[in-house]
Design brief:
70 residues, Helix Hairpins, mainly alpha, elongated
Length: 70
Amino acid sequence: MKAEEIRALSKEEIQIRLDEAREELMNLRFQQATGELLDYTRLRYTRRLIARYLTILREREIKEVREGEV
């Protein structure tokens, strides 16, 4: 999912997807530890997706603060 697609989502929807991505990352780590994980690129993709979600949530938070100052 690209950043522009994420920006189109509501804050609540981003939070839900963030929670799902964190759960998926945990499952992937368990699979890696047990030797079941075949596609290691999913680990990297999921970590980056989580970072995108967090970045966009932070952007919105900063924007809200700045709008409150004006």
